[in-house]
Amino acid sequence: MFVLRVHVNWYCCIHQDSAKYGSQFCTQQAEIANGSFSIQEAFQMLDAAFFAHEKMVNIVREALEFNVPIIEANRKLVAASDGGLQYPPVLVFHADWGVEQAEPATKSFGYPSHPDVQRPDSEEDIAFMSILELGQLIKSKQISSVELTQIFLRRLKRYDPILQAVVTVTEELAYEQAKEADQLLSQGVYVGPLHGIPYALKDIISVPHYKTTWGSGSFKDQVLDIEAWVYKRLKSAGAVLVAKLVTGSLAYDDIWFGGRTRNPWNIEEYAAGSSAGPAAGTSAGMVPFAIGSETCGSITYPASRCGVTALRPTFGTVGRTGVMSISESLDKLGPFCRTAEDCAIILDIIRGKDPDDLSSFDMPLGDPFSVDLTKLTVGYLEDAEKEVVDVLASKGVNIVPFQLNYTIEDAQGILNFTMDVDMLAHFDDWQRAGLDDAYEAQDQWPFELRRARVIPAVDYVQAQRARGRLIREVRKSFTVDAFIGNATDWEKVCMGNLVGMPVMIVPVGFAPLENPPSNDSRRRRTITTGIYAPPQHDHIALALAMAYQSATDHHKQRPPIDDLGPRDSLVDTSSDAYPSRQPSASQPSNHGKLPMLSMSIKIVTNEKQTTRDTVNSKNFNSEACSKRAKYASGSFSLQEAFQMLDAGFFTHEKMADIVKEASEFNVPIFEANRKLVAKSNGGLKYPSALVFHSDWAAKQGESVKKSFVYPSYPDVQRPDNEEDIAFMSVRFLYLFVLICVIALVYVTHQYILTYPIFGYAYDQILELGQLIKSKQISSVELTEIFLRRLKRYNPTLQAVVTVTEELAYKQAKEADKLLSQGVYLGPLHGIPYGLKDIIAVPDYKTTWGSGSFKEQVVDMEAWVYKRLKSAGGVPVAKLVSGSLAYDDIWFGGRTRNPWNIEEYSTGSSAGPAACTSAGMVPFAIASETAGSMTYPAAHCGVTALRPTFGTVGRTGVMSISESLDKLGPFCRTAEDCAIILDIIRGKDPDDLSSSDMPFGDPFSVDISKLTVGYLEDAEKEVVDILVSKGVNMVPFQLNYTVDSAQGILNFTMDVDMLAHFDEWQRAGLDDAFEAQDQWPLELRRARVIPAVDYLQAQRARGRLIQEVRESFTVDAFIGNATDWEKVSVGNLVGMPVMVVPVGFSSIENPPSNDIRRRRTVTTGIYAPPQHDHIALALAMAYQSATNHHKQRPPIDDLGPDDKISHAPSDTYPPRQLRVVKDTHKEMIAYGIIIPTAATRRTCRHSWAQYQETHTIV
Q1: Active-site residue, from 202, 353, 878, 1126
Q2: Predicted pLDDT of residue 766
Q3: Which of 911, 982, 978 is closest to 943 using CA atoms?
Q4: CA-CA 20 to 30 A from 384: which of 63, 175, 409, 574?
Q5: pLDDT in tens, 567-618
């Protein structure tokens, strides 16, 4: 028998794993408690002890000098108020499983034609023709694709020795594709404007059978068996791949394993930026166009340096499958071309939804060839080129002075945190293996990624929240259709990439060199401008660029590669050292020399920004030097270790606890997640489940959704007593009710099942709605009934925080007045309801269940409250949330279960569950992050829906985790749940994760066409009834290989929660939390989770989603609703579930024989995301044949010898148990903490329930 021995607080030293928890480990813990600590131990806490001592010392210095100022700046921006009500992060989770469906047809742009184009005499002239011109030559058969391919292959081989821009010439593939294009044309098949046109790809884009080196010596022989999505798009359009062009090593700057790429306009200068090869190759006429990429500046800088037209499109426009990833929320692919017209053609062909890139989608772009310029208002900044302004004004554009205003001063710090942490997640194993020591430039990625290793996850999340604030401010300030400004201003580059803004880089002229090699040298410095548009308005920037280029010819000029001047020559600079990557603090104008890098690194403080090389007395004083010497000697205190993470505010005792927890809890999860996703580098597999959508259309009017078609109940009559009105679960016919209860005992389950002999079930809400609509009862009367019940039963259940009596009467009177005027708002007109007390209602306390916030009044109107109010709903109470939405303990006590009042409701939505169960409200809105709906609904025996993630907007709701939090209804019936969902669903303009889900109508689902699986733990009665209804029921198992789902969930939830309660913890308010082994313990431990491991958890989550999606081969499945593994997986993948009562079982030790207390039995009906209507339809079908959901808990009828006892003294049960049990699944179902090599499971179920059925030692 396997024995799990876990002490309530300190259990490491009794664990049987001697390798980790033996005497050596315990000795180490004792030393830490006494204040002894080494730099090696500090890095062990972060699972980063693989660094050499010297590197650790450098990392500590960089963390203090670079990371901490950015951490402080971001925290100042977004973390001053707790609860996550403001500034959500921009990385969101979209539970979209529809990606494998057929891609919707994208309407192509209307390209102009050039029928009069004639073939030039020289290859040079052909090489610099535009795409449409070359396409016309091929279409008219003046030149074949093979001939054209030969021309560009010759140019690639001729100029690459000078420019060092080519990694691989794909000659064999090029001729194969060119011959195929010619053959198609001979058969009368013309694919489109790219038919037979040669092109090149940046060498981070994979092509089967050819090397994809990523520009790095570590990967120079790598061949990836992946066909990049953008390559497939171009191939299907008939384009011919002739070369893989240089990328800077691992997409950083222009240095690669073969040298350094030169600028064709000044060959003693370098191309500046990691898309150096595409820029130089296009500029030199070595290819008609090339595909490059940008994370931050890698399109804008080399395009400007090399004088080519380029488009950095809206983030998400072009799919990135098969492309090396730096940052999934920043990486973009875009074209380098001769003209803006060419850019429009390429964009049209490569844009669209990539099924394996969660960030990509079908952009609703307009046609740039049909934009009416005279209707545009375009701003110009102070650094805009005057000629561009004048030309566009002459074209009828309304040109106005403009300034983009935002308060975020550390955009560059936000970008550095985002980019570096994401990159480290993709090259985690590379760094751990020490391969960064061989990197081409040590002051680039090696330096940055070592520093990124000690960025705390919570501060990464804070950076994303600050980024979200930046986006909102930029969106608000963007009051023009586009604006013109410097394309290489570093602030604009950082800001533009963070918000996902498109920009056109357009050549506008040339400037002479300051020190030319000869007077007659033709070398020049190129001058460009940027045309910026809001996200999803790339067509505007393209149209403006085309208008400008139609009146100028700067873009047609050819660089002087062959004509340097009589006394001009190329100096051999092969021995040149790679210059520092730190640009000067002051950015030169476009007329001055461009900054050397696309990815510069700056320290941003509240007062000013300085480069790392600048001597700063604040960071470089004698005290700092003394500390460095101390670190180098190996001396390191616990306090100093936490200062490195900007967490020196903890007491020594807490720090010691955190180190222990980090070693015991965090590190095993790090290892498990890394094993899942980090063994291959480059981010080609397992993208993060958190994505960035640069959607500015959210502030526009909410899209119209089609409502469900509800059934009607015109014959409903008002019952005689309030109890029947409160439950409205039985139809009154012929002035009497005949209900006969038959007790059927299932031998295997010992359930007491009740069936009606005569009578019909009705839905609570539709019945009440019909009473109001027919004026058998007024909303005021109905409100009075439920207010009385709230006051009557709350002393027993402790389920209500605030009775909103004044507001309830006000809205009830308004509902009655509207009805008297003939206005009926729908099924919720005048219906009372309750809200979980994490949902803000103006003028009423929103306590979040916590003593720290029990007097808090949030001046916000939650989006879900607004939806209900507009539907005529009447809020009668704010119901109990567990303290800060953790379990059922709150500052006023602990909420009881109406079916067994000596048991607790279990889960933070305890109040909504208990009150709905007890008939204190007809329905309530609750929330779930991980089990907070499923557990209390199951305990209290109510019907509930945890909807698909993103279905219901969460503005005005306390946040635990923006990628996990969901709102949903507790109701009497599944039909009620459908009605409430229909009213509260939809796009919340301030909740980036919400969307208009394409639901079907649950009331019109033909269940006979469904195939539904049932798990081993499914309730037999549910299976049998659904079979009788015509459903095809099959045995089923959900298969996936990710065995650390619960660890992934813990990391996600705890880090996100800490970001929302950062100041609360820093102020020491967690010491007053209602249960110290809940959030205080978890959030202290979360403080030392490195950001890279948070990202690895999200990548592991992405893998889990892929595997669950592939395994979900049925329309829905039936299984236990409270199995902790299903709870974890379901919440991580965004899966909806209906919790449905299916009967009762007797409690083992009732206080008397005639006690009516019962243990409720429920099942879960799970559906794929965005298929909530399937789960609802199945639940409605089941409930139409049973009446378990109509039973009423015995609050008033306890039995003659029964009474309510006082709460036990151990009100707050331990969250960590010592258990002797070999049934692993049973323990998981109860949520017991199990310390394994992968994770520890947090108990989110009732201690009493487990204690009653298991042996506790």
Answers
A1: 202
A2: 79
A3: 978
A4: 409
A5: 556 555 443 333 333 333 333 333 333 332 333 223 232 333 332 233 333 3
Marked catalytic residue, from 274, 521, 663, 779: 274
> Mind spelling out the 3-state secondary structure of 1131-1182?
HHHCCCEEEEEEEEEECCCCCCCCCCCEEEEEEEEECCCCCHHHHHHHHHHH
pLDDT per residue over 1209-1231, tens digit each?
Answer: 333 333 332 222 233 333 333 33
Query: H helices of 985-1123, where?
Result: 1020-1028, 1045-1060, 1062-1066, 1079-1086, 1091-1111
* pLDDT of res. 703: 44
Question: Using alpha carbons only, what angle is made at residue 256 by residues 253 and 259, rounded to the nearest 5 degrees?
Answer: 115
Residue among 1194, 1255, 1198 nearest 1226 (CA): 1255
Per-residue pLDDT reduced to its tens digit, 972-1025: 999 999 999 999 999 998 888 888 888 899 999 999 999 999 999 999 999 999
DSSP strand E in 4-130: where? 91-93
| H helix or E strand, kind and range, residue 430 | helix 428-432
Helix 1045-1060 to helix 457-477 angle (10° resolution) is: 60
Residue 120 pLDDT > 70: yes
Tokens 């038919």 sit on residue: 195
Contact (Cβ atoms closer than 8 angstroms) between residue 215 and residue 254:
no
Nearest one of 542, 526, 623, 458 to 1053, comparing CA atoms: 458
- Beta carbons of 913 and 905 less than 8 angstroms apart: yes
- What's the one-letter identity of residue 945? L
> HEC string of 368-414?
HHHCCHHHCEEEECCCCCHHHHHHHHHCCCEEEECCCCCCCCCHHHH
Q: What is the pLDDT of residues 759-805, one digit of tens each?
A: 222 346 878 888 888 888 999 999 999 999 999 999 999 999 999 99
CB 437 within 8 A of CB 60: no
Q: Is the four-CA dihedral 1225, 1226, 1228, 1233 of positive or negative sign?
A: negative
Q: Token pair of 250, please? A: 């691992």
Q: pLDDT: is 93 or 393 the higher one?
A: 393
Tokens of 1135: 């899966």
791 assigned to active site: no
**What are the pLDDT digits (tens) for 4-13?**
222 222 223 3
Residues, the chain, total?
Answer: 1257
User: What pLDDT does residue 47 have?
Assistant: 67
Q: What is the mean pLDDT of the chain?
A: 80
Q: Which residue has the tokens 């996703």?
A: 677
Catalytic residue among 298, 329, 909, 959: 298
Strand pairing report for 262-263 and 377-380: unpaired
Mean pLDDT over 912-940 rounds to 96
274 labelled catalytic: yes
Q: Tokens standing for 446?
A: 């090696």
d(CA 358, CA 325): 13
CA distance 954 to 865: 10
Q: Which of 981, 916, 952, 922 is nearest to 1179 (CA)?
A: 981
Spatial distance between the Cα atoms of 163 and 266, rounded to a whole number of angstroms: 10
| b/e sequence 1133-1147, b meaning 16+ C-beta within 10 Å | bbbbbbbbbbbbeeb
- Which of 793, 871, 774 lies closest to 832, judged by CA? 871
| CA–CA gap between residue 69 and residue 1185 (Å, rounded) | 63
Nearest to 347 by CA among 182, 148, 504: 504
Residues 6+ positions from 319 with CB-CB distance below 8 Å: 229, 230, 233, 352, 353, 354, 356, 357, 360
| Average pLDDT of span 186-202 | 97
H-helix or E-strand spanning residue 309 = strand 309-312
